[in-house]
Design brief:
By secondary structure, this protein is an alpha+beta fold. The protein is about 40% helix and about 20% strand. The protein contains 28 helices and 26 strands. Strands 1, 2, 3, 5, 6, 7, 8, 9, 10, 11, 12, 13 and 14 form a 13-stranded antiparallel beta sheet that branches. Strands 17-16-26-25-24-18-23-22-19-21-20 form an eleven-stranded mixed beta sheet. The chain has a two-stranded parallel sheet with strand order 4-15. The radius of gyration is 34 Å and the shape is elongated. InterPro entries: ATPase_SAG2001_prd (IPR016628), P-loop_NTPase (IPR027417), T4SS_component (IPR051162).
Length: about 850
């Protein structure tokens, strides 16, 4: 037995080498110290190639600054999303004292259960980078090297004899300067030093891969004694499969090193590809900068390999044999490597290990096959490394670095080539806390209408809470604009998503109004309510529907006369402006300055009568216009207006003032108007008289919605405006739209604007736009959508949008992120409410 075996050095790999943890520093038992930083993921749109290339340059620049430290370690770690905490936070904003509470409770619990059931592991990827501040590798002080080596032997000997050395007091203070230097080197990546608690958990997590655990308990466990850090049972099953168990939970762990890469690694983007898999894959890179000279430098190894290839080629020439293509390519690559050395490009060697976990050996093998197959398509080769599993397990611990004994699976390349892995990026859209509405789509090609397959193929849930848009202290937001645009052709899923967002957000502490000009929701909601009442099922849904105040504006019912009369529900200049716009819309070409002056005078007179307490309305304006002292043109116009209004849908807006305006004090209101004949969006045909009347009513409704949003600054209000395209059809409509937008942030009013064309979202005289957009497919406007969302127009991005199937849209959030998502209606019982003529997503579940 060797002295090393006698001292137990052959077992050194099989135990934690960490001696102490403080802030983002770890002190190992050999005296070396490493600093750990969290690297915030840069959200890059999946088809934004320019942004990816730009970010790779940032990463290259940052990592170049670590050459003096020789080693660094990049870790991409799948971390549980902690759904319970996510939905507990959301529940704080639920209106538990209203009729929505029972359904809201079922939805929140159902979301958590269904996500865990369908995804198994609900996780997100986080990045960290580890830099050794002091080790045998980087020390330039020979005495320091000898001191560290001596300490390692001494500590092992003392441990064998039953003694131990205490952790040096305030050891971490000696590294303040080195930490500051690393902070500066990595500043372009916006790194953040871990806290002690985060550091403890990250190191403990290495031993808990795939296991069930209580995060707080595990942190306390290690903080009680650092010796508990590696307290798990590790054994082999079936000879070469690692099995880890702890407190009754067990996991099978497979460590798969990357053994070969494609010759051309440009645009490899390995880290991005790994994130598209449905199961979590930890990716760990142990990286070492190459020495510029010496027997162990990368250049020396390359020269030795080149000499061997030269000999092989000369032997082939002498025997008059054909040169193998692989030999020629290898010779070329080695010569290219030499040139890069000559140009002083940073060179690195690295060990990349992918770590997979599973609950059973069968599941582990299945994940092996999927991972091997997926990466093989990229030209990336993995090996099972059966004989090296334990070595890889401990070699990939935090604080480890490559040494001269690490020869297998090492990949030499330039630092620039290394950055082609595309580190520190993620694909994310939506809010951290919110209602689950779907999943990020992982592919550009079409799902051929099978949106359920698109959902099943993604591991990336999308959450949203529209009310976060104008809230302060939400990190990363690029706009506080609270308004939402939902666009797309009929049948694409636009109406389905709209009603899904309406239902979920009606659970919150807010008042919500849905304008339904197609008058389709009340009938369906009452139908569903009747079916459940008859069957005695789904009481929570029954109570929810019963809590909704359905208001139907039917011009055939005298009760509704004048509920949108501008003189009844508006005052002052607003009443004058709306009345002027409505009369001008009705008169059209028959209007002229004389007539306009006449009816404006009459409006002023009627408003004064109202101010004195008299009940008056727009019909009194027409009466006054017909008085004997007015000019003939004004009298004729008053007579014409009275005749146009009589027995038509305009009775809603022109009345004698007897009825009051609409009252909207209920938490949830669905307001529908029957008898509307709205022209089709983007129609080039002249409007019929009934269509003109319908638009006039909609103008009045727009002003009413403005009043809804302005009434209480302290309370959030959400306005869903379906068929809202008409606002941009006239100057008056555009002015109303701008008013609705302007009251948004200051009055806590959120407008959800549903229309077909992206052109309806902006006008030349309006720069406010929409903070959030859901863009469903409109085949004639693909380039226009790309322009609006500020996405570079390429064949790739056009294909990305053109290939969207039913139920898919581009989600542009308030953080400036854009991704193609598949909408997921998780609850069939709620989806019954959306079974209207327009939506085709009745079977989403």
């Amino acid at each position: 037995m060797s002295i090393l075996s006698f001292l137990g050095f052959d077992d050194q790999l099989r135990q934690s080498s960490i001696w102490d943890i403080h802030d983002n520093l770890i002190l190992k038992k050999d005296g070396s110290v490493s600093a750990i930083y969290h690297v915030p993921s840069r959200v890059v749109n999946s088809v934004d190639d320019e942004a990816k290339e730009s970010f790779k340059e940032v990463v290259f620049s940052s990592l170049s600054g670590l050459q003096d430290y020789k080693d660094f370690n990049i870790r991409m770690i799948p971390v549980p999303q902690e759904l319970l905490d996510k939905f507990n936070k959301l529940s704080l904003d639920i209106d538990w004292d209203s009729g929505v509470s029972e359904l809201a409770d079922e939805v929140l619990h159902g979301m958590m259960y269904n996500l865990e059931d369908s995804l198994g592991d609900v996780f997100e990827y986080k990045y960290c980078i580890v830099v050794p501040l002091k080790s045998i590798h980087v020390s330039v002080d020979l005495k320091s090297v000898m001191r560290q080596s001596y300490r390692a032997v001494r500590n092992k000997t003392m441990s064998y004899l039953g003694f131990s050395e205490d952790v040096p007091v305030d050891w971490y203070k000696r590294y303040d300067v080195q930490k500051e230097l690393v902070d500066n080197a990595l500043s372009l990546l916006s790194v953040r030093a871990l806290t002690t608690t985060e550091n403890v958990f990250l190191n403990r997590l290495q031993y808990l891969r795939g296991l069930s655990y209580d995060k707080d308990m595990e942190i306390e466990f290690v903080q009680g004694s650092i010796e508990n850090l590696d307290e798990v049972n590790i054994e082999f099953e079936n000879i070469n499969i690692l099995k880890v168990s702890n407190l009754g939970s067990q996991s099978y762990v497979g460590l798969l090193p990357v053994n070969n890469l494609p010759e051309n690694i440009s645009y490899l983007h390995l880290q991005e590809e790994i994130q598209t898999l449905r199961f979590p894959v930890e990716s760990n890179f142990l990286v070492q900068f190459s020495l510029s000279k010496g027997a162990f430098s990368l250049l020396a190894k390359a020269n030795r390999s080149r000499q061997r290839l030269k000999n092989t080629m000369e032997e082939a020439d002498e025997s008059e044999s054909l040169q193998k293509t692989t030999v020629i390519r290898s010779r070329f690559l080695l010569e290219d490597l030499q040139e890069r050395f000559d140009e002083k490009e940073p060179m690195v060697s690295y060990l990349n290990t992918l770590i997979v976990t599973a609950d059973s050996i069968e599941e582990l093998k299945s994940r092996y096959e999927i991972l091997f197959s997926h990466l093989n398509q990229l030209g990336v080769g993995l090996v099972r490394a059966n004989a090296d599993q334990l070595y890889l397990y401990y070699k990939n611990m935090i604080g480890e670095v490559l040494d001269i004994n690490d020869k297998n699976f090492i990949q030499p390349t330039t630092l620039e080539g290394f950055c082609e892995n595309l580190f520190f990026i993620t694909r994310k859209v939506g809010t951290d806390v919110g209602f689950y509405i779907g999943r990020v789509d992982n592919q550009v090609s079409s799902w051929q209408g099978d949106f359920e397959l698109a959902i099943d193929s993604s591991n990336n849930p999308v959450y949203t809470n529209l009310l976060q848009a104008n809230k302060q202290k939400v990190s990363g937001k690029v706009t506080n604009n609270p308004h939402v645009g939902i666009i797309g052709e009929t049948g694409s899923g636009k109406s389905f998503l709209t009603k899904l967002l309406f239902t979920y957000h009606s659970f919150l502490k807010s008042k919500i109004l849905y304008i339904d000009p197609k008058a389709e929701m009340r009938k369906q909601y009452n139908k569903v309510l009747g079916e459940h009442k008859k069957a005695g099922t789904n009481v929570a849904l029954q109570k929810y529907i019963e809590s909704i105040d359905f208001v139907t504006l039917d011009a055939k019912n005298p009760v509704n006369y004048g509920v949108l009369d501008p003189i009844v529900f508006l005052t002052g200049a607003e009443a004058v402006d709306l009345a002027d716009s409505m009369i001008d819309s009705l008169l059209g070409k028959d209007n002229n300055p004389v007539v306009q002056a006449g009816y404006l005078d009459s409006i002023d007179k009627v408003l004064k009568r109202r101010a004195s307490g008299e009940k008056v309305g727009m019909l009194h304006v027409f009466e006054d216009m017909q008085s004997e002292n007015n000019k003939e043109e004004v009298v004729n116009a008053g007579n014409l207006l009275e005749r146009i209004v009589k027995n038509s849908i305009l009775s809603l807006c022109f009345s004698d003032g007897t009825n009051d305006a609409i009252g909207l004090d209920n938490k949830i209101t669905i307001l529908e108007i029957t008898g509307l004949d709205l022209p089709k969006a983007n129609s080039n045909h002249d409007m019929t008289k009934t269509q003109q009347k319908s638009l006039t009513v909609m103008y009045a409704l727009g002003y009413f919605c403005k009043r809804f949003g302005e009434r209480d600054k302290t309370e959030e209000t959400i306005l869903f405006f379906d068929e809202a395209w008409f606002f941009n059809s006239t100057a008056v409509g555009r002015a109303i739209l701008m008013e609705l937008k302007r009251i948004g942030r200051s009055f806590n009013n959120f407008m959800v604007y549903i229309t077909q064309s992206v052109h309806d979202l902006s006008t030349t005289d309006d720069s406010t736009g929409f903070g959030t957009v859901f863009a469903f497919l409109e085949k004639t406007e693909v380039d226009d959508v790309l322009d609006y969302l500020k996405i570079v127009k390429t064949e790739h991005t056009r294909e990305w949008i053109n290939n969207m199937t039913m139920g898919q849209c581009i989600y542009y959030d308030t953080f400036g992120r854009k991704e193609r998502i598949t909408v997921d209606g998780m609850f069939p019982e709620i989806m019954e409410l959306f079974n209207t003529v327009e939506t085709k997503l009745q079977s989403v579940a």
